[in-house]
Amino acid sequence: MIPKMTHIAMRISDSELRDAEHFYCDLFRMDVAFRETMTPDGWATLPKEDGWQFADRHNLRIGLVMVYRGGFAIDLEARPVPVPGGRYSHTGIEVTSEELEHMREIVSHYDCEISHSSSSILVFDDPYGMRWEFMTLSYDKPQLLSAGAREGRWAEALVQVQA
153-157 contacts: CB < 8 A, separation 24 or more? Predict the structure, then answer.
């Protein structure tokens, strides 16, 4: 299998996030897959149809927006202020389980810095400063990749608990 690029992740300042979402949706004719807010328990997914209004109403900070078209996505990672070193965060590549194990061996051989590793994902910085995210997860249906949705954390429930 030839590895398939699944997404590019960018750091966007909080004040630009909504505009960046609209820009990339318009530019690439993309749709919003999901918006998430960070909670003490992890990411919680906001309602798809009125996510921004919901966040504004309940004073929630949207920390991640994924926009997509086909099997390709752009992750917009919110930051309180612009991040030194630029907006690039990482590039995601879909691989098979066998290829992922091969990547683990190569990364170990070259003593790359691993920032996250699980049975389906390997995130590391290569010797030249590029961050890579190799995963066995498919981006064909990016709505299913929302951590909040996968783990049953919905922003509506969070708001009800706080009320």
Answer: 153/39, 153/41, 153/42, 153/43, 153/44, 153/45, 154/44, 154/45, 155/37, 155/44, 155/45, 155/46, 155/47, 155/54, 155/55, 155/58, 155/60, 156/47, 156/54, 157/44
Residue 151 predicted with pLDDT over 90:
no
For 20-75, write each residue's pLDDT tens digit: 999 999 988 999 999 999 999 999 999 988 899 999 999 999 999 999 988 889 99
Question: What is the C-alpha to C-alpha distance for residues 42 and 76, in angstroms, rounded to an integer?
Answer: 17
DSSP state of 119: S
**CATH code for position 141:** 3.10.180.10
Lowest mean pLDDT among 41-50, 133-142, 143-152: 143-152
Q: Tell me, what's the pLDDT at 141?
A: 77
Structural domain including 78 reads 4-162
Number of compact structural domains in the chain: 1
